[in-house]
């Protein structure tokens, strides 16, 4: 206990020392690391602290992230990926090893303030069919038993982050809330286990996906300003989908005998690119509405106690699967490099408190040279090699901003090709031979960015000087080299951090 207070005061001192006098807001955020060029963990931790985030959710026990979080004053919810559920379900020993290696050691050796272990990630998502139905609860029980055995039972709670599709309403209003019939008994068993052990239920709510799934969905209702088209449920008038969705869950819990189990919102946010409804304006509007509620300590009509809310997410991830859609790589409130996407006020403007605290960018980020790979001026857009060159570039680099309604969706054919070439060139660390698309490309020092479309320069991972093979080897080999180099550097940074 004393240790936690110490950490808290360090956090307060840190804020005060930085000249920013604010109350600790308790903002929480998800930190995903599916990036070709992840920001160094120490920079990410500083970014979170500079912006008043004191809680973070990780999707896996990433050693770099965990060590950087040691003695940072930031509380951690540590995720276990779904593929671990089966082994953890079948063997107590495996669960004990997991806890020992991924929880106990970080708590005791590095001073990481782990508060929750999130077992699985949306394991009952409809698209996973029934893959994780048998293993989630046994894995949850084994992890809980292992935490108790490790003496961490009081300090570290277990939970299972579930998608909001585990409940539904057949009457279109929250009071019709009930758990999905195919998993009803399982849901009750899990909730009972959590409740018996003083653990919270975790739900991910995505108003963006509601809007995306239904072209007739009222736009204002997705934000926190839908008074024009409220959903009327008895005496309650719902003006936003967040409240309506959350209260659907609270109704379902109440009907099944768990009216007061604590609920955490494990993920909620709005993407900025990769879809016509994903842009800076909408994301700012949604996230500001959300942050305002968090700062006001606002609950919902059905439950006045506010839930703990983890924003999704901190930074963009250019290597995330785009199976759900191109927007998947653009959920960050910061770009991939920790620069600010839009202004987000992090303090309430009340009369006697005039601080306009807003997001601040990451500090100390190192970039590659200020140069871009673009289509050569003399090359023709009718060149027969062009389509396959673009296709090749976009196979290895992130081109999700080029789609319809996205930030670079209005580029002409020439700029479109340039965007793809540059994405590839940057992703491969501007290495020699990575801007040679059948003689259609050339390196420039003039920034080709236009309007909303950003031609990025990648984070410097120290890869560009190390090109061993100056002659143009096949691009596949280049990529393999890069991947190897990234792995090696990750490994060395892990080893360095561990020393
Ligand atoms: C710790 O977690 C990592 C990442 O989730 C995993 O690869 C590793 O196997 C875990 N350790 C044990 C002993 O299970
Ligand atoms: C730009 O490139 C993308 C990705 O290759 C492609 O889908 C789109 O049709 C292109 N647009 C134009 C105008 O060439
Ligand atoms: C690129 O240009 C060089 C020099 O003009 C030429 O030798 C080479 O064959 C060209 N390569 C391709 C793929 O067109």
List the helices and strands and how they pair.
Blueprint: H1 2-17, E1 27-31, H2 41-50, E2 53-58, H3 63-69, E3 75-80, H4 85-90, H5 92-110, E4 113-119, H6 136-149, E5 157-159, E6 161-163, E7 167-169, E8 177-179, H7 184-196, E9 201-204, H8 207-213, H9 219-222, E10 231-233, E11 236-238, H10 241-255, E12 263-268, H11 280-296, E13 308-311, E14 372-375, H12 386-396, H13 413-427, E15 441-444, H14 475-498
Parallel strand pairs: 1-2, 1-13, 2-3, 3-4, 4-5, 6-9, 9-12, 12-13
Antiparallel strand pairs: 7-8, 10-11, 14-15
Helix pairs in contact: 3-14, 5-6, 12-13
The structure holds 2-acetamido-2-deoxy-beta-D-glucopyranose (3 copies).
Q: Which properties best describe this structure?
A:
alpha/beta, TIM Barrel, Methane Monooxygenase Hydroxylase, Chain G, domain 1, nine-stranded parallel sheet, two-stranded antiparallel ribbon, 15 strands, 13% strand, globular, disordered N terminus, binds 2-acetamido-2-deoxy-beta-D-glucopyranose
């Amino acid at each position: 206990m004393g240790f936690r207070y110490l950490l808290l005061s360090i956090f307060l001192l840190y804020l005060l020392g930085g000249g920013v006098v604010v109350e600790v807001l308790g903002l929480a955020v998800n930190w995903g690391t599916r990036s070709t060029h992840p920001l160094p963990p120490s920079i990410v931790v500083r970014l979170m602290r500079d912006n008043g985030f004191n809680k973070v959710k990780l999707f896996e026990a990433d050693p770099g992230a965990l060590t950087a979080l040691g003695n940072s004053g930031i509380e951690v919810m540590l995720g276990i990926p779904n593929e671990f559920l089966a082994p953890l379900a079948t063997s107590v020993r495996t669960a004990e090893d997991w806890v020992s290696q991924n929880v106990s050691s970080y708590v005791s050796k590095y001073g990481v303030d782990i508060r929750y272990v999130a077992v699985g990630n949306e394991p009952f998502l409809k698209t996973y069919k029934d893959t994780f139905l048998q293993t989630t609860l046994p894995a949850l029980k084994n992890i809980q038993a292992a935490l108790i055995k490790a003496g961490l039972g009081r300090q570290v709670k277990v939970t299972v982050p579930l998608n909001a599709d585990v409940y539904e309403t057949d009457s279109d209003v929250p009071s019709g809330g009930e758990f999905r019939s195919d998993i009803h008994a399982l849901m009750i068993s899990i909730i009972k286990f959590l409740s018996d052990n003083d653990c919270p239920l975790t739900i991910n709510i995505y108003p963006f996906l509601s809007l995306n799934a239904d072209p007739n969905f009222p736009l204002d209702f997705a934000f926190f300003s839908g008074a024009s088209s409220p959903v009327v449920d008895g005496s309650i008038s719902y003006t936003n989908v967040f409240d309506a969705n959350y209260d659907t869950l609270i109704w379902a819990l109440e009907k099944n005998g768990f009216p007061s189990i604590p609920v955490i919102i494990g993920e909620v946010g709005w993407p900025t690119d990769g879809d016509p409804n994903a842009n800076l304006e909408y994301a700012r509007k949604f996230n500001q509405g959300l942050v305002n509620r968090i700062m006001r300590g606002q609950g919902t009509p059905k439950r006045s106690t506010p839930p703990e809310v983890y924003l999704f997410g901190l930074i963009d991830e250019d290597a995330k699967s785009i199976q759900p859609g191109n927007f998947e790589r653009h959920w960050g409130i910061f770009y991939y490099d920790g620069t600010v996407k839009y202004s987000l006020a992090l303090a309430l403007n009340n009369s006697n408190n005039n601080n306009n605290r807003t997001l601040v960018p990451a500090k100390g980020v190192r970039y590659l040279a200020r140069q871009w790979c673009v289509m050569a001026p003399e090359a023709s857009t009718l060149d027969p090699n062009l389509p396959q060159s673009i296709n090749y570039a976009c196979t290895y680099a992130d081109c999700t901003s080029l789609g319809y309604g996205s930030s670079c969706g209005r580029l002409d054919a020439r700029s479109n090709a340039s965007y793809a070439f540059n994405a590839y060139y940057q992703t491969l660390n501007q290495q020699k031979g990575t801007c040679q698309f059948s003689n259609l490309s050339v390196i420039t020092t003039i920034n080709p960015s236009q309007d909303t479309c950003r031609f990025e320069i990648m984070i410097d991972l120290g890869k560009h000087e190390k090109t061993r093979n100056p002659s143009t080897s096949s691009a596949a080999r280049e990529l393999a080299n890069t991947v190897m180099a990234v792995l090696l550097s990750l490994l060395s940074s892990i080893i360095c951090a561990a020393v």
